[in-house]
Design goal:
about 475 residues, alpha/beta, FAD/NAD(P)-binding domain, Enolase-like, domain 1, seven-stranded mixed sheet, five-stranded antiparallel sheet, 23 strands, about 35% helix, about 25% strand, NAD(P)H dehydrogenase (quinone) activity, nucleotide-binding, redox-active center
């Protein structure tokens, strides 16, 4: 067996692992990177990238079908589902070199395409190689969780890991799960000409602002998605092309394809964590505020750390590790400034507390300001007026923002900067937005915070009258 000693061993070549490995190597550390599957991890190959590429094709089809509102004759698009999937594959292939083994070997990193397993506190075996490392970073990510529904083991089903390989358009796609993945894929497929039914045991987008989630669900229903909330799958049966799902509402859903989008589970089974003295649970590896495990030489980042499961969180965690593991500087991960987005139409983006969370935490100290898209000139000009922004403010500082509407995932970036730096609402009013832009809704929301303080304030009116009386 070959033996390697290294400064840093990174397990997992997804977003977080690649960022740690590249940063550490370029700063002079000796790095070994393990990856048992595809370079780039879930986001590049099965998640963010292919889903957004599919959504883009679906959006084009929807524009063609709804062009009448713009004075252009609408047409029913002829969807070549295989060609759509070919484009998805091309998008992945275009981005893949950035995450390739060759690129990271160019940084001086030793890349081993093997599965890693602990054999000691700071030692792992990968294939025919044993690696001893000063520090180890676990970035193994997560995979689709498959609920134990009776009959599911006997029928063909899709997950996000297999959906993008499907070449024939589903006639009727049944989706179990009404979270971001389920709703994004539901809208994309109904726009591509499929019949779609979504079964959700609770309310859709349960972690989001209720009003915002309701607007998304209402829009999807208007487009033809059959969303069944508070509906659980009790039993599944059938065969390829003829599947059925029995529900707690006594309704039997029949379809041609089944997509499981019922959450994620961490990839930890093969790591042999107990051998390294690392605590874990069914939700992931237990870490402290600095992302350190119970083994002080081992860190865990991204999905496998059991917290927020987003690609950008894994990238953020990578920066924490660089400061802590490489430079021995104090660094703690927090979540209050982390945005998230659901890329339906309308998009739904959130940062910090929702209204319910803010009121629960701060009571009467919370003010909620809102501005609707239909008051934005760019939204009116482009015919995209459905949606609003809601900002939760405490003592002049925003503690959360919810945006549901066009480009919400882009507009939330401004609020991410505001919350990350503890800025006040007054900083937003000082900003000048180019006209006309969707981004103006942020400044208008800030203006709505100050409007009653200026225009409904008798002291202000008294001062203005007094000043005017003194003017020549």
């Amino acid at each position: 067996m070959k033996h390697i000693k290294t400064d840093l061993l990174v397990v997992g070549a997804g977003s977080g692992g690649l960022s740690v490995a590249a940063g550490a190597a370029q700063m002079g550390a000796k790095v070994v990177l393990l990856e048992r599957g595809k370079m780039g991890g879930d986001c590049l190959n099965y998640g963010c990238v292919p889903s957004k590429a599919l959504i883009a094709s679906a959006a084009r089809a929807h524009q063609m079908a709804t062009a009448d509102a713009f004075g252009i004759k609408a047409v029913k698009p002829e969807v070549d589902y295989a060609a759509v999937k070919k484009r998805v594959a091309e998008v992945i292939a275009t981005i893949a070199p950035h995450d390739s083994q060759e690129r990271f070997e160019g940084f001086g990193i030793t890349v081993l395409r093997e599965e890693g397993c602990f054999v000691g506190a700071n030692r792992m075996v990968a294939g025919e190689t044993e690696i001893e490392a000063r520090r180890i970073v676990l970035a193994t990510g997560s995979r689709p969780a498959v609920p134990p529904i009776p009959g599911i083991e006997d029928v063909p089903y899709l997950t996000n890991e297999t959906l993008f390989d499907l070449q024939e358009r589903p006639e009727h796609l049944i989706i179990i799960g009404g979270g971001p993945i389920g709703l994004e894929m539901a809208q994309a497929h109904v726009r591509l000409g499929c019949q779609v039914t979504v079964l959700e045991a609770g309310g859709v987008l349960a972690k989001e602002d209720r009003d915002a989630a309701s607007l998304v669900a209402e829009t999807l229903r208007e487009e033809g998605v059959d969303i069944q909330e508070y509906t659980s799958a009790l039993r599944i049966g059938g065969e390829a092309g003829a599947l059925w799902v029995e529900t707690n509402t006594a309704r039997k859903i029949e379809g041609t394809h089944l997509l499981i989008a019922a959450g994620r589970q961490p990839n930890i089974e093969s790591l042999n964590l107990s051998e390294a003295g690392i605590d874990f649970s069914k939700t992931g590896i237990t870490v402290d505020e600095g992302l350190r495990t119970s083994n002080r030489k081992v860190y865990a980042i991204g999905d496998v750390a059991g917290g927020m499961q987003f690609t950008h969180v894994a990238g953020y965690h990578a920066g924490i590790i660089i400061r802590s593991a490489l430079l021995s500087l104090p660094a703690k991960a927090k979540t209050s400034h982390i945005p998230r987005g659901t890329y339906t139409a309308p998009e739904l983006a959130q940062i910090g507390m929702t209204e319910d969370e803010a009121r629960h935490a701060h009571g009467d100290d919370i003010e909620v300001v809102r501005f609707d898209y239909d008051g934005n000139d760019r939204a009116i000009a482009t015919g995209r007026t459905t949606g609003w922004i809601k900002v939760m403010v405490r003592k002049g500082r925003p503690v959360g923002a919810t945006i549901v509407g066009p480009d919400a995932g882009e507009i939330i970036n401004l609020w991410a900067m505001v919350l990350a730096n503890g800025l006040k609402m007054s900083h937003l009013t000082n900003m000048v937005s180019p006209y006309p832009t969707m981004g103006e809704i942020s400044k208008r929301a800030a203006g709505n915070y100050f409007s009653p303080r200026l225009f409904d304030n008798e002291i202000v009116k008294y001062v203005v009258r007094a000043v005017q009386a003194l003017l020549p």
